[in-house]
Amino acid sequence: MEDLMLADGSERAVETIQFIVINIGDEQYGIDIKYVDNIIRMTKIRRVPDVQHYFEGVINLRGEVVPVMSLRRKCDLPEVELTDDSRIIIIKLENNAPVGIIVDAVKEVVTLPVDCIGSPNANSQKTQITYLSGIGKFENRLISLLNLNAVIADQEAV
Predict the structure, then answer these.
(1) What is the spatial distance between Cα 121 and Cα 105, in angstroms, rounded to a whole number?
(2) CATH number of the domain bearing residue 49
(3) How many domains does the chain have?
(4) Is the Cα dihedral 55, 60, 66, 68 positive or negative?
(5) pLDDT tens-digit profile of 12-66?
(6) Cα 94 from Cα 41, distance rounded (Å)
(7) Is the pLDDT reported for residue 156 higher than 90?
(8) What is the per-residue pLDDT for 110?
(9) In this structure, is the dihedral angle defined by the CA atoms of residues 5, 7, 8 and 12, taken in order, positive or negative?
């Protein structure tokens, strides 16, 4: 909860959620900060045979083997070269082992009031709807909020 100053000078408690804003190409996506365990620079990823096409392989993070997936591949977006801005975000969902997600860049942390989060547009592509939990309005921008359970699920969107 966060206190929000209203136009009349009074304050009201508002439920808020913090998101890490990432870039995939020109698009901005938000990841609920409560699931982010770590953000690391690109490191050597060891390939693993016979895995889904969107998995890059595994990394050794402080003695723990962590699978790493490409968010671009998972969302059927074109591949690009990794840059100095590319990062691996280590996601830890409840009762699951950590998973790394490769993103083009990590931009900032934003705090969104719950009432500034809308439903994903039903006219969007099916994969987009599957992987989005909502659309956040922040300043003059729209941020697509990722449904990490759907993104990390082993099964492909049908």
Answers:
(1) 25
(2) 2.40.50.180
(3) 1
(4) negative
(5) 677 899 999 999 988 899 999 999 999 999 999 999 998 888 999 999 999 999 9
(6) 24
(7) no
(8) 94
(9) negative
Q: Which residue has the tokens 């074109």?
A: 78
| Of residues 107, 95, 106, the one with CA closest to residue 40 | 106
* 157 domain residue, yes or no: no
Longest dimension (CA), the chain: 61
Residue 108 lies in a domain: yes
Domain membership of residue 10 as a residue range: 2-152
Residue 37, sorted as left (phi over 0), alpha (psi -120 to 50) or beta, turns out to be alpha
**Distance, CA of 138 to CA of 11 (rounded, Å):** 20
CA–CA distance, 39 with 31 (Å, rounded to integer): 12
Q: What is the pTM of this model?
A: 0.82
Element spanning 149, H or E: helix 148-152
Does 91 have pLDDT greater than 60? yes
Average pLDDT of the residues in 99-117? 93
Choose among 86, 75, 93: nearest CA to 31: 93
In angstroms, rounded to a whole number, what is the distance separating the alpha carbons of residues 101 and 74?
10
